[in-house]
Amino acid sequence: MCPVGVPTLSVPRNDQVNVRETMMKMWLRSALSAAMLMGAAGSAPVFADDITLTMWGQGDCPPNACMGAALVDAFQKANPGIKINLIQQPVDGYFTNLLAQSVIGRGPDIASMWAGGYMDQFKTYMVDLHKYVADDILDSVNGVDFFSEGYNHKNAVYAAPNTAQWYIGYYNKKVFKDAGIASLPTTWDELSADAKILKDKGYTPIVQGAVDGGASFAAWEDWSYLAAALSPSDWSKMLSGELPYNNPTLVAQLTKWAQLFKDGYFNADAYNSPTALDDFKAGKAGMYLGGGSWQAGQLVTAMGEDVGIIVPPYSDTPTRAAVSFAGGGYAVFNYSKNIDAAGKFAAFVLSDEGQKVIAQFDAPTRSGFPNSNPLLNDMATLSGKPETINYPMFDNFTQAPVTDALARNVPQALIGQMSPADVLSAMDAAYASLPADQKKPISFGK
Amino acid sequence: MATTGRLLNSRTASQRLNGVLFTLPAVLLVGFVMGLPLVQAAYYSFTSWNGAQAPFTGWTNYLNMLNDPELRRSLVNSLLFAASVPLGLVAPFVTAYVLHKDIPGSRLFRALIFAPTALSWVVIGMVARQFFALNGPLNSIFRLFGSSGPNWLADSSLALPAVIFTFNAAIYGINTIIFLTGLATIDRSTIEAAWLDGAREWQVIIHVILPAMRRFVEFVLIVTVISSATGIFAMIYVMTGGGPGSATLTLEFAVWRRAFATGGFGAGAAIGITLMLVTLLAIGAIRLAMRDRSGA
Question: For tag attachment on chain A, is the N or C end more exposed, with fewer CB atoms within 10 Å?
């Protein structure tokens, strides 16, 4: 049997008509077989009991401390017909990669999502989860409004929030004790004094680096605490262009931050150290100030009771800031070929079963599911104190070009390669370059 | 005769038709996967496409590029990459020449030199990142002399040379193999004739071998310049992310950053079209230079 599209070789010589007909048949066969192949590829059947979804997570996901993987495992056990391939993407460039794939409709079925400005650019690609999650469940989810149209979950809900999150620093209690430091620093001066003590003792006072898989460190956490020298209403003004980024307060803040590096209180490769977090876990450093609540699990696992939280004391007066926000969420994308199965996963995240899984790693978004991580409880306590001023995560509200300018330039301010004024001017220039429709007042929601 | 002529004409027409029909699928495929996106990109470069809407803005994206210091920097960086290519070909040529002499162990050396070619740019970037790290192997040399060495990839004046070096090191193996292939095609009798005429080794290389290798050199130059312009995004992404700031930003990287990091797809398309034109100009310049040399 001759396979379709393979020409026969019995073409009579000197027979023009036969040659032409044979050639025409060959061409038609080739074209037909190509069309059949293309058609077959485009209409491959998907069986209801054999659905495979792709899900993107962000950053490293250590096997024993990966909430996303645990959620996927639990979901697959509860839904044997659905398999989820979890792919961890680097934090650096995560949203740009997701946008690139979404624009061409080839992104994941489910993806980790951040609220605010990060999410806004994906609204046209995300599915309203009301179809999959009951209203009474949504009413009970803390932070769901951040993922909703108009910050109201009665409108479209674009992602199922999985955790409450904080930007926070960590310190090594054992190292502090060894250095004879009894209380945590709460101001620039105290931070500088304690850093000197730690350095004299042979420790790296503050460690920083490319801990999330990027080429340099992400400055979001430090920036939010640096900017906390201004009030939340001033944040709104900066984000809306009423107050320039290049203002005396922020210049002074960045200058003091850079001075710490200049004085040798950071690791010399703070810009791009690939081992910063490992060094902190190993007890080589006293403080890691650019962290977040998502690292609490792995730090407790590695350091036990030796690790504690510290508010980055980037303040002239005792700091009262806490930066917290709805953590990540899981969004379902409308170009998915298995939207309902993906929606089922989003519903699972908010279900009792899903919340129990989350509680093993992080702070769940529904009450009644306590977690055992003391650091997360400390963060919740910090935010609940009456004297605490709770700020949202600044970068969740910056426009994409401003976020880009922040990400590229703020780390350079720390290591002295750009002056604070130049860094802030670059952010102002990025804001100035925005089209008119993006220069609008920014809301922090509730 | 007339009948034979008609038959020949008929055959020619038939063959032409068959030729057209047989190449048509390939032409359509290439047009579909290459031509259409190119036309689309050219169109979008004249719009402020944000991924959903694409209002026509004329030459705005191109004019903005002229006034954008970051893009000017990326153009300079791309040109520096391209300028490094001829220098980067010296080592592969010398290596190929030495290996061609069948020195002991040359087969092993060939395998070792070619092996890294199988690595992806991502892996190359990761290895290079460790190599240039503050506490990495390169700085261990500095430590021997009591200095800690610089943080190469964090220093805006050192990061670009480090990335360019990595690129040239990465293409060293494949270019060596191509030169080896070229050397194998040279008629040994011409070289032996030069020896007999009393030519020295360097004279043989310059006056016999290099002219005979002209096509290979041209090929390697063109392919490497194209790689430097359009093929090393992943390596830069892993090593420096285009930073510090814009220190290692190339036009190729700027396309991605402008389109996806800031949502300016129209502006990204304009940079992409510019990159294509710059690359074509570079290729044209190489071909012209090589042609002139052959005519000299």
Answer: N
